[in-house]
């Protein structure tokens, strides 16, 4: 898992130019039963991030990667 995240992070850094801004956002409200995905609070926060950084926002986001 760590290696996967490290490789994803490295690919983002390689793709970024000196003039780019990279946002690393982690929200980890996992279900208490240990299953994959997010719990209800995590889903709600993910939607808020979409509203803040989505296409209609003032941010010029060219690429979003989620894992």
Task: Give the overall shape, derived from the CA principal axes.
Answer: flat
Structural class: mainly alpha
Helix content: 40-55%
- Number of spatially distinct domains: 1
Low-confidence segments, given as residue ranges, are none
Multimeric status of the protein: single chain
Mean pLDDT: 75
Helix/strand order, N-terminal first: HH
Instruction: Report the sheet-strand fraction.
Output: under 5%
Count of alpha and pi helical runs: 2
Provide the descriptors you would attach to this structure in a database record:
0% strand; flat; 42% helix; 67 residues; 2 helices; mainly alpha
Explain what you see:
Residues 1-18 form the signal peptide. Keywords: Signal. The protein has 67 residues and is mainly α. The protein has one domain (2-53). The protein contains two helices and no strands. The protein has helices spanning 2-15, 40-53. The longest helix is centred in the N-terminal third of the chain and has 14 residues, at 2-15. The mean pLDDT is 75.
In short:
By secondary structure, the chain is an all-alpha fold.
